[in-house]
Automatic annotation (TrEMBL):
Keywords: ATP-binding, Helicase, Hydrolase, Nucleotide-binding. It holds the Pfam family UvrD_C_2. Residues 213-551 form the UvrD-like helicase ATP-binding domain. ATP binds at residues 234-241. This is UvrD-helicase domain-containing protein. It comes from Adlercreutzia shanghongiae. PROSITE patterns: UVRD_HELICASE_ATP_BIND. InterPro entries: DNA_helicase_UvrD/REP (IPR000212), P-loop_NTPase (IPR027417), UvrD-like_ATP-bd (IPR014016), UvrD-like_helicase_C (IPR027785). The keyword Nucleotide-binding applies.
Length: 707
């Protein structure tokens, strides 16, 4: 393209941008004003309706009429809410777009002879007052053409129909608010220039959305059909986590209004990682799902005081539980009293009686549910009878005035027996809240006792304990619709089986890298597949083979650690950077000096550097070794990743994160012996670096890196 031509294009695009920006601002202002007006109108209507509403129960006709008035009133209020949610949605889209109205333009010819259509694609979609699309949402069907990266004849699918189009222009933009920085036109040999520009900018303290530059192989995962289980294997830095976040945003769009963020779970490797990713979705105008670590998931399901412990449980042990439960019959000792505030509200004997009533049913969720319902009724009856007792009323009367006010909003002074009972019930429900909670979690069942009789074993691991409870009671979350497991290679078969069964109706997305399995006893990729096949039937799969994080030199280095054959397929996106540095030191003093030097160089260079050590215990020791020479911070579970500086990070916490520079303090044969586990741990460590990598070795370097 000639210079003048390019300038003319730039000027025209800047003009379009300025115009769009103005329109967006206006839409935002109008939406706010409309919301304001709706709120004022709703208040007015409510007041008028309440004034007009003549509640009349005199005759059946009056009752019907009153009912119709109330329905009409509710409909009006609902209509206000609807109007407001439509406006709120527009406002949310505008807020996202005002930061960057769009990132691409596509020109599509739908039918020969007809004028081509220009579409601008952004992180959200919005139409003007004439319902003309100002910006098309990146998740809308037509935007797929942009991500397919095929110029000329191509197609997309909308409402199950394949629509053929001719992609005549694919233009990418870098934009800040209303300012066009630059644009790139894609040619036939498609190279994503926006991607290169984005990678050249380097990393930041929080993970960023990749909406504008999602690559073709990644897009297949983001827009994958909604299957029960999708297993995605990707090499280090191939964008698994990024894709996962975009997929969640995509699902929210597809199920707009029908999918609540509380129905989506993201199981993350550690709390630092959870904080690293928690801005991506809000930046896209979406809410975060429930982000939980394995510990955070499991702890609330366990009895108080019981630790989460080891996750490494062979599947055979869990299958043995299923088999044993199938032919199990309860005994009195399997049941426990429900005691609260020193009062035995339901005795184990009573539980046994209820159990006997359902003896014709096998032990399992159905029977437990029926027992639970009956026991809950008994508990309610028990509380009701306590609520009628004078001693309870005396107990309430002796509470402090403040306490009475807190409970009832007034001082306890019932005017009738009925009122006394009702207030007493409020009091008792609070006093015995623990009993109600125990009932809800079926604590009348003594899981440990059952285990001892059923399996002839005490001291179940937490994984077995929860699995047994699920088998006996149906414990689980049937509301969850999607569960995403990141770094899925780090879970044991037992852990995966628990998750698969607990979220029994959810669709699963399992993302991981078999070569980054850094713990003992975790499931292999095929074992993971087998667990989900058994629990859910079919498992679909995808692969991601391009590394976006690391420079080619770093990628080459870690790809050398991959099993034969796999390394051949790995690609990385080109950009300039220095080669990794390897420093082998003969003695401790030399090593210490070299390490201090490397840290100093990193500090001067700026950005964020991680000194990645194998274990938590190494981190403190290393900080001490460096001592006064250079001060460094040790990153703990409770910390967030800083934007810049030097942090010492144990490998388990560095999982999923990335740094401008990585220093490996000791890659000696001692630290990384020639085992499969050490190979995977080294691969994971090396691949945290985006551009600079310094490898030191205290003594002979590991064989894994020797050639
Ligand atoms: N399509 C893309 N456009 C721009 N940046 C991308 C793209 N895909 C990945 N990246 C960048 O590459 C880096 C690595 O991505 P991400 O952390 O999602 O990879 P990962 O596969 O989860 O890595 P790992 O398994 O090694 O932890 C991030 O900085 C991310 O922003």
């Amino acid at each position: 393209m000639s210079r003048e031509n390019a300038d003319a294009v730039f000027a025209a695009e800047q003009a379009h941008l300025s115009e769009t920006y103005g329109k967006l601002e206006k839409i935002g202002r109008d939406a706010l004003a409309a919301m304001d007006a709706v709120a004022a109108q709703a208040a007015e209507d409510k007041k008028n309706m309440a004034d007009e509403l003549a509640v009349n129960f005199a005759t059946w006709d009056d009752i019907l009429e009153t009912h119709a008035d109330i329905v009409a009133m509710n409909n009006i209020i609902e209509a206000h809410d609807m109007a407001n949610s439509v406006q709120a949605e527009r406002l949310r889209a505008v807020e996202v777009l005002l930061r960057e109205p769009y990132f691409a333009k596509i020109v599509l010819q739908f039918k020969e002879g007809q004028p081509a259509k220009e579409l601008y694609i952004g992180s959200a979609g919005v139409s003007d007052e004439n319902y003309r699309r100002l910006v098309v949402d990146w998740r809308s069907p037509v935007a797929e053409v942009y991500y397919n990266q095929t110029m000329g004849p191509t197609s997309y699918v909308a409402d199950g129909r394949t629509i053929r189009v001719d992609l005549q222009l694919r233009r990418q933009f870098e934009i800040e608010e209303d300012r066009l920085i630059t644009y790139f036109d894609s040619d036939v040999a498609i190279e994503d220039k926006l991607l290169l520009a984005s990678l050249a900018r380097g990393r930041s303290a929080h993970m960023q959305a990749i909406t504008a530059t999602i690559q073709r192989e990644q897009n297949l995962v983001v827009r994958h059909e909604d299957v029960p289980v999708l297993q995605v294997a990707g090499i280090a830095g191939s964008g698994k986590t990024s894709v996962l976040m975009q997929r969640i945003a995509y699902l929210f769009y597809q199920h707009r209004g029908a999918l609540d963020p509380t129905q989506v779970y993201l199981i993350s490797p550690n709390p630092v990682f959870g904080r690293y990713i928690d801005r991506v979705l809000p930046d896209l105008g979406e809410r975060n799902p429930e982000i939980l670590t394995w510990e955070e998931f499991l702890s609330p399901l366990l009895p108080e005081g019981r630790g989460v412990g080891e996750g490494d449980v062979p599947l055979s042990r869990l299958r043995a539980i299923d088999e044993a439960v199938a032919s199990f019959e309860f005994a009195r000792t399997d049941f426990r009293d429900i005691v609260s505030a020193g009062v035995r509200l339901i005795g184990g004997d009573a539980v046994e009686k209820v159990s006997a009533k359902f003896a014709n049913l096998p032990a399992g969720p159905h029977r437990a549910t029926l027992m639970g319902e009956e026991l809950t009724n008994r508990l309610t009856a028990r509380l009701k009878s306590l609520a009628a007792q004078e001693s309870t009323h005396d107990e309430i009367a002796s509470l402090s005035v403040d306490e009475q006010l807190r409970l009832f909003g007034e001082v306890f002074d019932p005017q009738s027996d009925e009122e006394a009972r009702s207030l007493a019930m409020t009091y008792l429900e609070e006093k015995h809240a623990d009993a109600l909670a125990a009932m809800a979690s079926m604590d009348w069942l003594n899981v440990d006792r059952v285990a001892a009789r059923l399996l002839g074993r005490e001291g179940l691991t937490s994984v077995e304990w929860v699995y047994l409870k699920m088998a006996l009671t149906g414990l689980g979350n049937p509301e969850a619709r999607y569960v995403m497991i990141d770094e899925a290679q780090d879970y044991s078969e037992g852990q995966l089986a628990v998750l698969a069964r607990y979220f029994r109706r959810a669709h699963f997305l399992l993302l991981g890298d078999p070569n980054q399995a850094i713990f003992e006893g975790t499931a292999t990729w095929d074992e993971m597949r087998a667990v989900f096949e058994q629990e859910r039937g079919a498992v679909s799969s995808c692969r991601l083979m391009t590394s976006y994080r690391s420079t080619p030199a770093i990628t080459d280095l870690f790809a050398r650690l991959l099993p034969e054959g796999e390394a051949m397929e790995v690609a990385s996106v080109q950009r300039e950077a220095p080669a990794p540095e390897v420093i082998v030191c003969a003695g401790a003093e030399e090593w210490k000096a070299a390490l201090a030097d490397a840290v100093r160089v990193a500090r001067e260079a700026g950005g964020l550097t991680a000194v990645i050590v194998p274990w938590k215990s190494d981190a403190k020791r290393l900080a001490k070794t460096l001592g006064d020479a250079v001060s460094v911070t040790v990153l703990g579970e409770g910390d967030s990743l800083p934007g810049a500086g030097i942090v010492v990070v144990p490998l388990a916490l560095a999982k999923g994160l990335e740094f401008d520079r990585v220093i490996i303090p000791d890659a000696s044969a001692r630290a990384f012996p020639e085992t499969d586990l050490a190979r995977r741990r080294l691969y994971t460590t090396l691949s945290r670096a985006t551009r600079h990598l310094t490898i030191l070795s205290n003594g002979e370097i590991t064989e894994l890196l020797a050639h």
